[in-house]
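Hi everyone,

Forwarding the result from last night's run.
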Amino acid sequence: MTDKNSIRSVDRTIDVLETFIGATGSLKVSEIETATGINLPTLYRIMNTLERRHFIRPAADPTRYELDYGIIKITSGWLRNQDVVGRIEPLMQELAETTKETVAFNLYRDRQRICVREIPSQQAINFTRGVGTAESLLYGASGKAILAFENEIEQKKLVRKISKSKQKKYLQELATIRKDGFATSENELIEGATSIAAPVWDISATILGTVGVYGPANRFTKKKIQLFKKQILSVSQRMSTVMGYSGP
């Protein structure tokens, strides 16, 4: 029985959004219809509104939909209250101590990554970007470690901004990052710097951001890079667990 004080259209909209809870990826319109019991004409009107307000978006397959960044904007206050930085701080410190290089956590917001915590290396020569720095996902290990796990539509929207002759190779690089679980970069944002980063996931299996290590390229020997990769993957997985992620 419907609560006489409820607004039916709002209830239905929330029903649509709640079908994505626990979903491992995108959903077909038919799956949403079955889960909610909403007739198709009404369902399409609701979904068109949610898409216009950036709460959902078409997946690579246009018959499927997934959550969009509007959900993060709505929950950003809640996330702040959960003190993301405070919860991952011990692991940030651990990574800084073991690598002796600058460590940073970048939060994923509005197709950008924003540095919200940085621990500069104590070595005489180091590189830092600064808390509050917002940058494109296209460049640097921290950006590409996010973009590699975005859907194909979002990837292509951003990749169009680089030279057409380089797009195929860039997309291949993203595929490799997705397979390996981490990204590396050299001389992309800071001349003479090397960076390694891996994604951190939250309770809704959405990328929260990335944790990365960077420093002078001459200190990042092949042996150290292999060691740092293992350490960053370990820390990123444990950060994800701290943030409630229970995936593989």
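The chain has a mean pLDDT of 87.

Cheers,
N.
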